[in-house]
Specification:
Number of helices: 10
Bound molecules: 1,4-dihydronicotinamide adenine dinucleotide
Structural class: alpha/beta
Distance between the termini: 30 Å
Largest sheet: 7 strands, mixed
CATH architecture of the largest domain: 2-Layer Sandwich
Number of strands: 15
Strand content: 15-25%
CATH class of the largest domain: Alpha Beta
Shape: globular
Length: 333
Amino acid sequence: MARIGMIGPGAMGQAHIERIHTVIAGGRVVAVSDVDQAHAQAVADRIGGTAYASSKELIESLEVDAVMICSHGPAHETDLLACIATGKPVLCEKPLTPTADAALRVMEAEIAGGRRLVSVGFMRRFDRSYRQLKTTLDSGALGAPLMVNCAHRNPSVPDHYTWDMAINDTAIHEVDIMRWLLDEEFVSARVDQPRRTSLAPARLQDPLVLVLTTASGVRVSDEIFVNCQYGYDIRCEAVAERGTLSLADQNAIDLRTSAGASNPITMNHNERFFQAFVTEVQEWVSAVDRGEHTGSTAWDGYAAASVCDAGVQALTDSGTVPVQMIERPAFYA
Ligand code: NAI
């Protein structure tokens, strides 16, 4: 049984705890820590675990075998480095870090330690429909992919959501899943800024379109619209030489009433990607038990952060911004 310590049991963290304690086998959250200590204590009381005064104490605790980091992105680096220093496997929610410089420090520490410990919570890689897209594209039946049109829509975002998070906290999902789907790196980023919705806070450019180009010239456009009001709507259409492929509607059921037929829209990531989260965390817990690594690596976290750095720059400087990345270290081959 993997004894898990969780840092930052907010909305995402508590959803993970729920999964681990109900549908996932082989793990239990035994320890929590949070900047809000009263909150950590309340969660610990509810799950019968221990609340630690700091993430460092939690990571170093002998009762913790592995760590999940579910705090906000800027807090991830320090805790990732502490996990690496103690040799504990860690599943870190996306983004690994909000900038490539910070991700590089994490990667360098992991390489120096000589063992892959860091997994990044890019759960879409575990989603059945994205996996079907990849299997079909990889089969070559449709020829080479040419363009992918994506959309990432949220009903609304919280007050702590800053202007750059549209890229480095939201679009980062598409950046990762497109690197995985197309199996190549992005070389440049541009941001188109359409008419702003009156329903977004003034600090945000919402919607925006991040336009990315891969090394072979595939163009990915990603509409980010985080105050769309109506639902959590993730769309993806890959256009290849001999056909197109799209994610289907989100729910497995169709609703038919006197008003007509519809496919209900999911309202949040936990609903839409329920199966993907379960598979992601189950595979990680099982790998922890076997002493193995699974899922996206620190390299994937770094590569995605590098593309997002270019995207954030493109949000303020108009024009196309090149993606700056180091060569993939042999450690992550
Ligand atoms: P939240 O605000 O609900 O929870 C964050 C928790 O972390 C809070 O309890 C907060 O007090 C705590 N925290 C903040 N700074 C901390 C620090 N320095 N040390 C310890 N605790 C700290 O936020 P939410 O929505 O749960 O997001 C958390 C992470 O999960 C973020 O990285 C976010 O990008 C990611 N996320 C991933 C999603 C996915 O689709 N995979 C969806 C939503 C969030």
